[in-house]
Amino acid sequence: MSLPKSVQKLITQFDKLPGIGPKTSEKLVFHLLNRPKEDLKEFADSLLDAKEQITICPICFNYSDTTPCSICSSSARDKKTICVVAETQDVQAIEKTNNFQGIYHVLQGTINPPEGITPDKLRLRELQERIQKDQPNEVILALNHDIAGEATSLYLIKLLKDTNINITRLA
Alpha carbon of 15 to those of 39, 91, 122: distances in Å? Predict the structure, then answer.
């Protein structure tokens, strides 16, 4: 039995999400089809609202609904410590620990030439400009210890070696 075109189209859309395979896409679609129409409307409206209201902070490049974001605009944050992360999700993970009171810089990816992500596609120039302007005491590299994260960390260490700033890495 073939699925209706609208159901197959929806499965195809879920399939495009990272980490979601065909079986999970199908499972999610059938789950949603069993939900009340009001729930689906709220889900769709929430997705559209997020897309319309979320912007990228011009300072740290984190997603935000304010400009600058609440972290960059907070007077309680240590502006002399910048934590460099690959993605917005990394900011959220660190914030959940309640242990870091500095500010962030989101690279929006890591160096990964096989996927076409070269240094010029990341927010590295903006990091350099920010460091030159704000003169932080420390830059913490909080990148994954996978090949792309290691390559990006090594690139940043070389890029920032003449800045006289303490560069540290998370264990």
Answer: 21, 26, 26
Does the pLDDT of residue 1 top 70, yes or no? no
Distance, CA of 122 to CA of 21 (rounded, Å) = 28
The SS3 assignment for 45 reads: helix
User: pTM for the whole thing?
Assistant: 0.86
Q: Which are the contacts of 3, defined by CB distance < 8 A and separation ≥ 6?
A: 11
Distance, in Å, from the CA atom of 62 to the CA atom of 91, rounded to the nearest integer, reads: 8
Give the Cα separation of 142 and 149 in Å (integer).
9
Strand order in the sheet with 166-169: 102-106, 78-85, 138-141, 166-169
User: What is the percent of the chain where pLDDT is above 90?
Assistant: 93
Helix ranges, the chain (H): 5-15, 22-33, 37-53, 70-73, 88-96, 124-134, 147-160
Residue at token pair 């962030």: 104
Instruction: In whole angstroms, give the CA distance from residue 11 to residue 25.
Output: 5
